[in-house]
Design goal:
The chain is mostly helical and 407 residues long. 68% of the residues lie in helices and 1% in strands. The protein has 23 helices and two strands. Keywords: Repeat.
């Protein structure tokens, strides 16, 4: 194979003699073509079996990535460099397939070396990087994950949620918090001045992967990154703590948030209420619900529904009825789900006459009730509010990369 590769390189150096371009290389597989150029280069017949084999290898390099064959990787790199300007789509697909097979073979170090060699030649293949990042996550290769992630952050404009999640997954088995913080600090420096957005998403990803202590560690080290937390940062931390039942810590963090001068928003209060409700802390739910209104933040349909159901199921039907009245007083249209829930609560409490009264009221106003579309719109608005966590930083480091990737 080495001898064949050298012969192929000799032939490429001779391309000036008979216009041995990359487009003609693909034609070397036919006997007629060798016959037609034998006058200009008669010795090529001697190399026919070797060159024919190399040409076949070129077309299948992407699917024959040998785990330890550096020569093959170098040959593939040269072929990409020679052909990507004319066939960028094909080069992109071939590169990703090659990286995929390297990853499958467990040779992640060769895959990143190949991609960074292309990067140094101003060729960036985001999909191949994402393939490698996913493979690094599967093997808990934190070093490679952060190298790949940093390249994506600098040279690619859009990082998907999957990139952040794979970065977090790669850290699942590490207990080296010093290395983790060092890597995250490097990411923060690269992302400046949008580092708060990036760190927020990293914290969120660690929370999603149930790596709570690491998420909290990164949060507590933010100031050391010269990265200022914002309301979204605190909302993320409150949600992470609440989801794992650490509601006392969640409330303490909420207090710290206010003491630091941050003004809680709609998502902040809904996060508190939802997590407190789940663990039965209804006294605190009512406290924060009132604080929410006093702060000028209007509870919505879903907030009222969850509060009414929580108090009703716990036997506090009087509070549930007061919340229902307050909802209508605020001109928030009840939904059929709230009516049915309230009616069911009243029946279980033995208040059958009141349950019948609400049933009649529901039937009379059924055309004016909020439906599933209202809930869908509410979810969309919530996602847009949370979407700040998903803002993609616009990084400009003066690099002019040729991206083999559709915009």
């Amino acid at each position: 194979m080495v001898a064949a590769s050298r012969c192929f390189q000799i032939l490429l150096r001779c391309k000036g003699t008979f216009n041995f371009s990359s487009s003609l290389v693909r034609g070397l597989g036919t006997h007629n073509y060798f016959t037609s150029i034998s006058v200009g280069f008669p010795c090529i017949r001697l190399f026919y079996p070797i060159v024919s084999k190399i040409v076949g290898n070129y077309n299948s390099l992407a699917t024959q990535a040998a785990p330890d064959d550096e020569g093959l990787a170098d040959e593939f790199l040269n072929q990409i460099l020679a052909t990507y300007r004319n066939t960028p789509d094909s080069s992109r697909e071939r590169c990703n397939a090659y990286v995929h097979n390297l990853c499958k073979a467990g040779n992640l170090s060769m895959a990143i070396r190949l991609l960074q060699s292309l990067r140094d030649k101003n060729i960036f293949v985001p999909i191949a990087y994402e393939t490698l990042l996913a493979a690094a996550a599967e093997r808990n290769q934190i070093d490679i994950s952060f190298e790949v992630f940093k390249d994506l952050l600098v040279f690619h404009r859009q990082l998907s949620s999957a990139c952040y999640l794979n970065l977090a997954r790669s850290c699942a088995d590490t207990n080296d918090c010093t290395a983790l913080i060092r890597y995250v600090k490097q990411v923060s420096e690269l992302a400046f001045p949008n580092n708060t957005i990036v760190i927020n998403r990293i914290i969120f990803a660690f929370g999603e992967c149930r790596q709570i202590e690491k998420a909290l560690l990164i949060f507590n080290q933010m100031k050391g990154f010269e990265c200022k937390p914002d309301v979204i940062t605190y909302n993320t931390i409150l949600d992470i703590l609440g989801r794992v039942g650490r509601v006392d810590e969640m409330v303490d963090e909420f207090t710290t948030m206010k003491e630091a001068g941050f003004v809680p928003d709609f998502i902040t209060y809904n996060t508190l209420l939802n997590n407190l409700r789940k663990v039965g802390r209804l006294d605190m739910c009512l406290l924060f619900f009132r604080e929410m209104g006093d702060s000028g933040i209007e509870p919505d349909l879903i907030t009222f529904r969850e509060m009414i159901e929580a108090f009703g199921r716990s036997g506090n039907t009087e509070v549930a009825l007061k919340l229902f009245s307050e909802m209508k007083h605020r001109n928030i249209r009840p939904s059929i789900f709230i009516y049915r829930s309230l009616i069911d609560i009243l029946k279980k409490a033995g208040k059958l006459d009141l349950a019948l009264s609400f049933t009649e009221e529901m039937n009379l106003s059924i055309s004016d009730l909020s439906g599933s579309e209202d809930f869908k719109r509410k979810r969309i608005l919530d996602m847009r509010n949370r979407g700040k966590q998903s803002q993609r930083p616009s990084l400009n480091h003066g690099q002019h990369m040729v991206q083999i990737w559709p915009k």
